[in-house]
Structure formats: structure tokens, C-alpha cells
């Protein structure tokens, strides 16, 4: 085990690396002096481990002894036979303490902690008896939240990490965009970047590669890795291939209202099973459903759901001949809005408004040059709009039009960069 710990902690011997800018880093830094356990959740490959390693660099830069910081990725073959024994985490800690003999407060980072059953029992015992700052990461939303709520209530601070935002994407590309002058000076580069981001999303490794075939291969590998490592074993699913087929089929249904009965007939299973499987996908951050708005909570729960994927790149591996840019644009607006409003919903009653959030109605249209398209979007606003509600029409790059009757028009980059 000592060899593994040395391998996973290169900062003990060498200066830590510098990583790409992430907006969540400032929040992480603000949590570091506190006693509470920091939990970082998010889909696999979104950068949770990297964010934790950014904390390592920060702590060392601030003067902490590098050997006072332990990083362990728990999804290692060495740990496989012990995953049902949380006491083995104590052996990992004891091996580290013997190896490094740290003096004073230590920081312990357990990456993908859900790999160990009942990990929270170990964390709670150390939280109360040792001078250890824990940072834990996990790729499973309900597993982390439910188990934290039972044993670690009041002892955790959570950061949910998404794939790269458009602003982070521009930082990575080296395109300045902090103010209007920079955005105007770099408008051509931003225009090229937003097309790339719309199509391929924000997974870092996908961003780094130019070849679209390899990009698709990576996205397919991410999806299958999540299905076969996080869903199938945890929920003891015997027909794993059915879960995979359902995932790819649902990608083609993204931005649409779900019909559970039709899905059940297509996959020859019950409505209940379909709903459970989609819940599993939500649990690992592959998809998210939103409700049709209703003033009564019970009616919202019973309403038909619309489906979205949590990174646009996955749309490129959907079983279809060519990407739908309108579908991709609506999904991208969803990704932006859902991070800011957990109660995001849509509105449908004869006509439909794509999103309703914090007294604002959002319509998404890739372009509005067509009179029929424009009138459809505007008529939906008129149907639903109440006093004190705003209306925003999001396009890819259409110029604002006169006479829109209190409708604010934004291009997708203006929305994503909060330029309004």
C-alpha cells in the first residue's frame, strides 16, 4: 500500500501542478479553514479529483507541509476485496501516518468514497476524535446525500461540480471575456467557441481533443463507464444491456416530454421500471427531469416530465443521423438554468414555454428569421405571462428585433456569460 500512496501523492516530492480555472475553487478555498467535511459531487470525469488537487496546491502555497496532505483514489484494484469493510479505511490512514509521520493538522482527501460501503461511519468517528480535515468526492447524488443526512448532518459542506461552464471553457481557450470591451474585441473567437461548446459540451478531456470521432469515442466510454460501474452493480441489475439501450434511446428524447407508457412498451417492461431506471440515470447526473408548472405541489409532481441531459456532448452520441442544433441549444439553456434554480420547470397548456424560472419565462429558438417560428414563440409568452413576469427569448446569434413587446432577446453567449 505504501507504494500506492506515494504514487498517488506526487506533491510529497514535487511541486503540485497548476490546473485549469474552475469557478467552484473559490468556494472550496473558503471551506478549507472550517472543520466540516467538504463533499464534492458530480458526474464522472467532470473534474472532482482535479478540484481536490487544486486544494492541495492552494494549501501548500499557503505554507502547509506537503506530507500533511493525503490524497487517495479509492477505486483501485488494491482496495477491491475490502470495499465492504469500512474499517480498512483506518488501515489506509494508519499506513499514511506511519509513512509520513505528519505533525499537526492533516488534510485527507478520499476520492470516489462511495466505493466503500458504510464509509460515513469511519468519517464520523474521525471527525469527532481527530484533527483531520476531510475532503471527499463522489459520483452518486442520492448515495451521498442520503448517507450524509443520517450520520453526518451538520458536519458537511457540499460543492456540486458540473462539467465546464462556457465561461470556464473560454478561460481554458485563453479568450478574455470579463467585460463588454473584451467580449467585443474577441467576438469572433467567442462565436467559434460557442459553436464548439454547443456541440461538444464541457468535459475537459473532450475539450482537449480536436478529432470528432475521438470525442464521440470518449463520450461513449464515459456513458458506459457510468452505467456499468455506478448503476448496474449498485442496483443489482441483471440485464445491463437494457440499461445501456435505454440510455441511448433517451438521448434521442432529450428536450421532449416523456411518455412512460410508450417507453415501457418499447422496452417491454413496466412503467414503474422505466421510472426507476430514469431515476438511476438522474442519480449519476446523466439526465434530469423537470415538471410542468402548477401552483399546487401535488399537481406538479403528477405532471408530465421533460427530459434533459446534463452535458451537451452526450447529444452527439445519440442514435440519429445529424445533430439538431435547436435541441442542443434548448438543452444548453437548461444546463445553465438548472444550476441556478432547483425549481426550474416548463409551462404547457395548449401552447408551451420551454422554461419557467424565478418569475421569468424563457423561449429557446435557434433562429427566428421565420415569421411562423417567431410568432409561435411570442404567442406562447402572451398566453402565460402574468404581471411582474419577464420574458426572455434565447437564440443562437440572431440580432434583436424591434417591437417585441417587452420581450428581451439574448444570444446564447449573452445568457451564459450573464451579459444581460
Automatic annotation (TrEMBL):
Gene3D superfamilies recorded: P-loop containing nucleotide triphosphate hydrolases
Record-annotated AAA domain positions: 35-170
Segments forming domain DUF4143: 229-359
PANTHER family assigned: AAA+ ATPASE DOMAIN-CONTAINING PROTEIN, ATPASE
Name used for this protein in its record: ATPase
Lineage: Bacteria, Pseudomonadati, Pseudomonadota, Gammaproteobacteria, Thiotrichales
Amino acid at each position: 500500500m505504501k507504494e500506492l500512496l506515494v504514487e498517488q501523492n506526487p506533491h510529497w516530492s514535487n511541486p503540485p501542478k497548476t490546473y485549469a480555472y474552475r469557478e467552484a475553487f473559490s468556494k472550496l478555498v473558503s471551506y478549507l479553514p472550517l472543520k466540516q467535511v467538504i463533499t464534492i459531487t458530480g458526474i464522472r470525469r467532470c473534474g472532482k479529483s482535479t478540484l481536490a488537487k487544486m486544494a492541495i496546491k492552494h494549501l501548500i502555497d499557503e505554507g502547509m507541509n506537503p506530507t500533511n496532505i493525503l490524497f487517495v483514489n479509492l477505486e483501485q484494484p488494491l482496495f477491491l476485496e475490502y470495499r465492504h469493510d469500512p474499517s480498512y479505511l483506518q488501515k489506509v490512514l494508519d499506513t499514511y501516518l506511519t509513512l509520513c509521520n505528519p505533525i499537526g493538522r492533516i488534510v485527507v482527501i478520499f476520492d470516489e468514497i462511495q466505493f466503500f460501503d458504510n464509509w460515513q461511519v469511519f468519517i464520523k468517528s474521525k471527525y469527532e476524535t481527530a484533527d483531520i480535515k476531510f475532503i471527499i468526492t463522489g459520483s452518486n447524488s442520492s448515495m451521498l446525500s442520503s448517507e450524509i443526512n443520517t450520520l453526518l448532518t451538520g458536519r458537511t459542506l457540499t460543492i456540486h461540480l458540473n462539467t465546464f461552464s462556457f465561461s470556464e471553457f473560454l478561460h481554458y481557450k485563453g479568450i478574455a471575456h470579463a467585460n463588454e470591451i473584451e467580449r467585443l474585441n474577441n467576438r469572433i473567437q467567442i462565436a467559434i467557441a460557442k459553436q464548439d461548446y454547443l456541440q461538444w459540451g464541457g468535459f475537459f478531456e473532450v475539450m482537449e481533443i480536436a478529432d470528432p470521432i475521438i470525442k464521440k469515442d470518449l463520450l461513449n466510454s464515459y456513458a458506459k463507464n457510468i452505467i456499468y460501474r455506478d448503476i448496474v452493480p449498485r442496483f443489482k441489475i441483471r440485464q445491463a444491456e437494457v440499461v445501456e439501450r435505454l440510455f441511448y434511446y433517451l438521448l434521442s428524447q432529450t428536450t421532449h416530454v416523456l411518455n412512460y407508457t410508450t417507453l415501457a412498451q418499447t422496452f417491454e417492461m413496466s412503467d414503474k421500471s422505466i421510472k426507476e431506471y430514469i431515476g438511476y440515470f438522474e442519480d449519476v447526473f446523466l439526465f434530469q427531469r423537470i415538471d410542468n408548472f402548477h401552483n399546487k405541489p401535488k399537481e406538479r409532481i403528477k405532471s408530465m416530465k421533460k427530459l434533459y441531459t446534463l452535458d451537451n456532448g452526450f447529444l452527439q452520441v445519440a442514435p440519429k443521423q445529424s445533430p439538431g442544433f435547436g435541441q442542443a441549444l434548448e438543452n444548453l439553456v437548461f444546463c445553465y438554468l438548472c444550476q441556478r434554480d432547483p425549481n426550474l420547470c416548463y409551462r404547457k397548456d395548449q401552447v408551451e414555454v420551454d422554461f419557467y424560472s424565478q418569475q421569468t419565462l424563457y423561449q429557446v429558438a435557434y433562429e427566428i428569421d421565420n415569421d411562423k417560428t417567431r410568432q409561435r414563440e411570442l404567442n406562447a409568452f402572451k398566453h402565460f405571462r402574468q404581471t411582474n413576469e419577464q420574458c426572455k427569448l434565447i437564440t443562437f446569434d440572431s440580432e434583436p428585433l424591434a417591437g417585441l413587446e417587452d420581450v428581451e432577446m439574448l444570444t446564447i453567449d449573452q445568457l451564459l456569460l450573464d451579459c444581460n
